[in-house]
Queue: 3 jobs
Job 1
Amino acid sequence: MNNPAPPVDTVAAVTTRITERSAAKRQAFLSAMLRDERPRRVHLPCSNLAHDCAAALPEDKELLKKGQAPAIAIVSAYNDLLSAHQPLGAMPPLIKQACREQQAVAQFAAGVPAMCDGITQGMPGMELSLFSREVIAQATAIGLCHDLFDGVLLLGVCDKIVPGLFMGAAAFPHLPAVFVPGGPMPTGIPNNEKSRIRQLYAQGKVGRDELMESELRSYHAPGTCTFYGTANTNQLVLEAMGLMLPGAAFVPPYTPLRDALTAAAARQACTNSLQGATPRALGALVDERVFVNAMVALLATGGSTNHTIHLVAMAQALGITLLWEDFDTLSQVTPLLARVYPNGEADVNRFHAAGGIAFCLHELLKERLLHADVTTIMGMGLMDYTREPVLGERGLTYRDGPTASGDPTVLRSAADPFEAEGGLRLLTGNLGRAIIKISAVAPEHRRVEAPCRIFETQEAMQAAFRAGQLDTDIVVVVRHQGPRANGMPELHKLTPALGVLQDRGHRVALVTDGRMSGASGKIPAAIHLTPEAAAGGPLCRLQDGDVITVDCERGVLEVRVATDELMRRTAALLPPTENSLGRELFAMYRANCTPADQGAVAYRGV
């Protein structure tokens, strides 16, 4: 048997194959990006420019009409409904003042919608969730289409919001861009206690009042939810890509350090702008190496499976083609450094206190698993992101980050990881291709072979559970949940019931063309199955009792039915989609989107 290639060689090989695979599209993208990068306002006729200046403060108006000061767009996902985005409302005044001090002008160019998957879990509104990313990208483009700006600050945190902001900004690749986060809420009750109460409620052992009290103690203040779901994965990935300030991701909102980082982000945007000292266009800054860094950071921390969709879509927006095989290959050589709920008991605040992103990046750079020589918004290599911000008498400064974990139960070195491999796998077989997150799945549960039970909705599965029909070894199949079917909702409402069945000693797995995202937990869940049932994938021909194998270790997803027999079966029809709560407005996205492994993108980019 040949010895496996060293991890550093694997990272290099994956980077090379992405570069070669993307060469034609990337070159076309970069060629199209080459445009006049002089200050945009100098091209405007006087009447057009007057419209831009009309509402500006007098001191800003003077700078704007001359067109000789950096003009920075603010695009924000602020609303006061969502805890993660409520803190963004306080940021524009800080940004505007910081820009004025740089003899620049910041204008609030666009607000983009931000929905909460936590509110819509298990509800009809969840069917709008994935494609809200496309709406956010379009809303970002509308804010930037006036072609006035020399740079953009992008304020957003949660699930589809950050990828949507990125994709919208990528449509203006000549513009420098800096992302600005909001920070997590304070720690509430332990996440495993929250999970325990949910499982008890699913069994009818506690009532709604106790469940409500538990949830309110979990989600209780402004800031991002503290478990390591898609929102917090967004923040970690953006730091690993060098697109926000070092150490900015997990500083709490409404603190002096948070405000100082927001002002510093504004100053950096001025420096990076087309009229700044060192212009850094987004389209040139983010290359294939940056996306490899993003994938490695995702895998090393057991981050959200949603990023196997979002990173693919984000890369496409810049002419770069990522495949699920890239995630899978990198996962095999990336050590798992973090245990953050649902992959452990800690939350992101505890992760941050233990050393957080700075420590993780230090370890990965030491092992040469990241490209250190990329250019970040700071103008330096990725080693800049192993430092951490501090606020003192001299204002905001940086110091070297920790080189040892402050809590080995949460964060470990690359020499002593929780596992030798990362948290994601690609499953393939006669059912298609699926992603599985195994960083929270115990080794003894990573292979399940059992008869399946088919459901068309998660409500039907929950009803069967409550009726006691699932108390056996079982592979639960929930189909017609893909992007073309109903917008690919997340299926978190399945988690408590499946966890109960596993705790009762049954071998349990989930197979679906829907999503589970950052809350994928202790149950092996083969998700994002492609081709989806609505596109005629084998999933639509399964029947109750078919034996399915979900094998995380070997990367296998198979049904024990001969292919010719499977194809003779009548395909299950797509259940009708109800037109309520705005779902009818998203029909065009469902009809035109690409498969999940191509980013579930509802428009054709480069």
Note: The first strand starts at residue 71 and ends at 76.
Job 2
Amino acid sequence: MDFFDQQVRAQRKTRWLILYFALAVVGIIAAIQGIAALVFEQSYTDLEMLAWVSAGVGLTVLLGSVTKMVELSQGGRVVAAMLGGEPVAGNTLDPDERKLLNIIEEMSLASGVPVPEVYVLPDASINAFAAGHGPGDTAIGVTRGCITQLTRDELQGVIAHEYSHILHGDMKLNIRLMGLLNGILGIALLGGVLLRIGIFSPSQRRSRDDKGGGLAMALMGAGVGLYLVGWIGVFFGNLIKSAVSRQREFLADASAVQYTRNPSGIAGALWKIGKFASRLASPRAQEASHLFFGNGLSESWFSLFATHPPLENRIAAIDEHFDPSQVREVRPPPTPKPSAPSKSKNGLEALLPGVLLPGGLSQGSLLQAQTLLASLPGFAGETVRDLQGGCAFIYAMLLDDDKKLRQGQLEGFQGDAAVREEMMKLFARRSEIALEQRLPLVDLVVPTLRKLSPDQYAAFRKNVRHLVESDQRIHLFEYALQKTLLRHLEMYFTRSTGPKVKYRAIVPLLPDVGALLTGLAVLGNADDAARDAAFAVGVRELLVKTSISRGESCDLAAIDAGLDRMAQASPEVKRSVLKACRETVTHDGVVDLREYELLRAIADTLDAPMPPLPPVQSDSISEPA
């Protein structure tokens, strides 16, 4: 799967969605123009009346859509709360919730998607959804029935299905659809308001010949008309929603099988939906019906509004030999057996699924994620799931090994005594955490740190920057940690959906790309000839005629400034940059941990999920000069 290609396809779908939406609005205007012509005894072709009708409909739809989009700008957690979901604590002791979190952490590490917020809905039915504006702003919700009635393999299939929606760009399209359709619903709501005003107006009691009575009747007539026309808009809106959703469910099912290599898992989950049902009790399920794993509503009329294909068709598409008699009732989840570490000499098999095709979640990366989680020191896994421990963990990772430099860091550090004590305890045990395990632990701590209050986050961010900058040198690990961690938290706390597209061609960014490829070439090669060769293969991937010269050193300041500009590029430009980086790094057939850390920072800044799995078990890793 090409992550950027999927983004482009999602953007095209969005354009079609907007077109269908515009056609629906035009249809509503035409219908209301007809009603207005009857009520006010005017000609249907009256241009002045058409202008007023168009303005009124446009304003109503705009206000309805904008209001909903502003609400949804806070991210997937708004959708989860709207449906009655309760957040799952990272250190929960509930075995079913622990099983769910473990599966989600595996999927996140395997795909490079930051660990999302996790919610459990109180429904006994079997269902799930993913909502948000992008990989860094995601909430996954599952029903209580989903985690209690499914086996681990079946639940893994459901979660893999939801990660497919994240990686394919469906999630962003879905949340836009919720906002747009709310605008059409506003017409029906306005009609209901006018109808109630007309019915309960004191003037309605007067004679129909009376001016006041005529006004009341006009309001009632307009209200009924708007209500009916509004629901016509909702009718077509649901048709759009169904058309957008149905085929993507087949793709997500197939992708889940590709990720897990276990068709019986998701097939068993779908079969159990048929047995136990997937309908949600939430009164607002209709708004988010196109987000769910299974149909969250009652059966649609002649399947016209069905947002999901029939269950039997979905099962047949992924496992034509499916045998319901083999489906087991839920039992205590077995401890996943991690696969053996890769025996690859240079570790490329562990790294390249995410670099060759960003967002390339695969069975291999999933097994590696399971191995990584199983190998983490117990104290580290517990620490990153605790709020105070999570902050202290990040601080401890940034402390310098040099005692004098570390003392300077501590002098300007602002934190209470408990955090300082925890930080120093973790620093004393830092050597127990392998270098290749540290960035994955940073990914696991993200959902914990989202629980900080805005003031606490401001203090945390200030401490992180102080620890990075006060020793007068920045290691690649520090750079990758700060770039990825603060970026995701900043988006969460500022409710940002990321930078807008400013560069649709790579030419204005060539100096920045040149600095980036220089840094990678210098990091991975010892002599100038090898650096020139690695740089040249990366430049060839850009397919530009402009000459680009290699610099002499890995300048993190120049790379950082350039990455911030490249973050404003279109998906096609970002893809070209990452392919060039891939060619530069893999030119010598070896990827070391320093190159991996810089690649991770690059991919993350460019919104390309990259599995944070170590490329090598390095015997000797030195920090760059």
Note: The radius of gyration is 28 Å.
Job 3
Amino acid sequence: MGEQLLELEHAPGQADLLANLFREAHSLKGGAGVIGLQHVADVAHALENPLQRLRAGDLHATATLTDAMLATIDGLRSLITHGDDTPDDDRQKAIAEALVSELAAGVARDNGAGTNGNGRHAAGPPAGDAAAAQGAAHAQVAATMQVAIQRLDQIDRLVGESASAYLRVGQLLAETLGTDPATIAEYREVTRLLSRLQDVTTRVRMVPISTVTPSLHRAVRDVARAGGKQVRWVVGGGETEIDRNVLEKLHDPLVHLVRNSVDHGIEAPEQRLAAGKPAQGTVRLHAAQRGSEIVISVSDDGGGIDLERVRAAGARAGLDTAAMSDAEVTDLIFRQGMSTAKQVTEISGRGVGLDVVRTNLGLVRGRVEVHSTFGQGTEFVASVPITLTIVQCLVVEASGQRLAVPLHSVLNLLPPDTDVSRAEGQAMVMHGSVAVPVVDLSPTLAMGDANHGQVVVLADALGEQALRVDALVGRRDLVVKGLGRLLPRLTAVAGAGIEPDGSVVVVVDVPGLVARARLRKTGATPDEGPPPHRPSVLIVDDALTVRELERSILERAGYAVRVAANGREALELLRREPADLVLTDVEMPLLDGLGLTETIRKSRTLARTPVVILTSHDSEADRERGLAAGANAYIVKSGFDQQRLLSMVEQLLLAGSSS
């Protein structure tokens, strides 16, 4: 309904849209009444009134009226979400009454009294609408069935493990019979069926990108309205499909990107006209599949990135921006706390947003690049794997050990006799017309001496990085699993998979591997000399059980952990000994998590400390307040996932160590 209202705002009076909206409201009212959500039914009934008057021509679809109806739909969503778990019925009733009152006031403000042009009240809904909506609902129930996501995850894992077992059987047949198993008809049939099964189970989890575009459209409209800008929203490739888990984790970064495009990119109408542009700007989202990746671009035709302002902001943060290239300066916009906004608003100015984009993309093994032309516009390009369950990998060998590199990060393979030159003390190879730094994989991972085989060119957010290996083993579809809670977190390791012979192959984490490669560029040798530094985490929560649970998770992962019961106690600990990262709740006595985060950001010595908020407050407004206070990440306790927490902590610590 929200998306249809936004369409109606750009195509007023469109009969089909109005009919669909009215049927949705009428069906919602009836359904809510049947299952006892009377307050929902009352609000839906109130929403029918302006929709019917729009159909009759008594009202006109204006931005103000759309605001009022969108606010009502937001309220309906909240009432439905909490309708069966809120014992306080009086509170639900008060919320519903307020929604009805605000909707009526919005209609009156924009369009006058509640009668049509000839003084008669608008006609009621056509008798057939409810029946049509009910019939459509029955058809939908017959065509679909709800299945728990956990069951789909289990099926995915079993299919992947079946594929690994199948490869082992093939190897056993080859050793026993002394012949290629592919010459056996039954084996070829199993190959075909297993391939089809793997494809079908992967597709079951796939959803089109268009499932999240309505909320992105709403974000574009809201920011444009708040800033007095005229913005057209365009979507291309919405039918492109991606794993639902990946898309869920991609939603927040996309929201940040489209909001940034409107707020920082699109100019005010008078500025655009003065620059010879149309008053209405365009924000465009385009999705496409490239091999095993989904590439999503968010672009605008606004003013582009002013590199001089970014340099100045970096200099204020204590960075030597004079020696940086334009690409390195552009990349500064992803640093936490970096902002070029001239004033602080609810939307921008606090330096949160784009750092969250890069961090969250890292959690799904993705990356983001930015291309900008000053005065013409900016494009952010996010690349993520289609699915995280089965990962296509290139298996390489270095110092007698096999390692798997996710294929979506591999740009090219160069032959062993590739010429290596040196520039400023760094070994370089030519990849096309670009000079790319190259390091040997074995010493980079402290596994052995130099390698003498092919060169693998990897993609990274800051450019390209080449690795020399001893040999290429081949391509594998691996079911990637974590290493378990008994092992410490390793920045260059994403997990492990099973080879056809039953052996375990380590899957490298490309961002972590590239970061280690760049350390070698400066002569650093993190695996030599004294024992490596154990990153320290300060946990701040007033609940003892929560503190101890988080402590046990992080200590098992190899971190040095301290705890505090409130923000004031945490600050005392930080003043005595800073932490590498702070994990805090919001609601606490003496000083809450938001106040603690703001104090850390204002401190000269602690300002760059990553802060993760872990709280039970799950509304978007609460999330915005947390990020606005300076938090690097915001995790809701109800959706708590141990692996996600560890991945978030690792990504933030890695980003901090490489900056």
Note: Residues 536-658 form a domain with the Rossmann fold fold (CATH 3.40.50.2300).
